[in-house]
Amino acid sequence: MNETLPSRSPGETDGSPTRPGKEETRTGTAPAGGGTRSAKPRDALFDNAKYLAIVLVAVGHAWEPLRSESRTVVALYTLVYAFHMPAFIIISGYFSRSFDWSPGKIKRLITGVAVPYVVFEVAYTLFTRWSDNEPDRSISLLDPLYLTWFLAALFIWRLTTPIWRALRRPLPLALTIAALATLTPSIGKDLDLHRTLQFLPYFVLGLSLQKKHFEMVRRREVRILAVPVFAGALVMAYWAVTRMNYAWFFHKSSAEDLAAPSWYGPVMTLAVFGCSTVLVAAFVALVPRRRTWFTALGAGTLYGYLLHGFFIQAANHWHWSRNDWFHTPLGEITVTVIAAVVVTALCTAPVRRIFRAAFEPKMDWAFRRQASAPAPASAREPDPAPAPASQQSG
Length: 394
Hints:
A two-stranded antiparallel sheet has the order 1-2. It has 14 helices and 2 strands; from the N terminus they run E-E-H-H-H-H-H-H-H-H-H-H-H-H-H-H. It is mainly alpha-helical. The chain crosses the membrane at residues 75-96, 108-127, 139-159, 222-241, 261-286, 293-313, 333-355. It holds the Pfam family Acyl_transf_3. GO terms for molecular function: acyltransferase activity.
């Protein structure tokens, strides 16, 4: 079953985009003699990974109208969808480890996830009335539209984080829930729960990771091995174009919805999770660790994630893919470059300043004032990885 871009398409860009905010840097310990606390710098690895993943998200959306004409495009599309969303979600889980139900964390969850969800659910509904020629489309906060499904899912995942952190073996339980979701077509569209439940293991995996695990995949031998892993995955994706339904990587349908026997659901849940996890590890291994020209853009990937959808929807409204030239190799490369440039521009500081009120509302008026006090040592995260903002993918 192909993923289409009409209004209710979930935007497999699906990602853990991130936004700048209070959790982007970690405050260090105050010097013994008093003075200002020093903020530890962000880890360039995660910002680089988020930027590269958001580019793949936009490119994947741009490729969607071209899939029927090219087996190569379908193979690349399948490969990208096999790991880009899991990568975002794993990173989101990793940076959610310190989440609890304290007033400050709840405030950041509401202002950084819930409010942008409402804002963009309304914005996309109004926009698709024009782009999809559906002037009577109604606004529904229970039926995530296009890219907003990720915010709804992240809200649920993060809200349940203390539960997963309290369990001894959370990942097997999360995989069981995901497998059972593939057996239940009656779940319905409310809050896109199929995606929320089927992508849950990746978030729980991120919660279970420590910095040492990322260091393991950064070893030289792993980085060398990552190249043939991706090459082999691309060959396998090309072979599977006519043999496998790549919609399994969307994690939004039951086995019955995909016209498969029920027992396929649990089997594919485990198979896809294993495949995606290996590819995410290879992706992280190949991401530059040093600061690059695009490192700073990693702090604004939520902006690129939510805003690029308007460009995609508008382009599809004007039926750009009906031009035969775009279905040639040169045309496909051009589409890829344009998508990458647009989403890159949307992650830049000027764009973030313009749209900050929608992405990072302060809303102090809506919350009780909390007495400020240093967090107890036991509440601090176990390692020094800088925590991205609430949307950390994405």
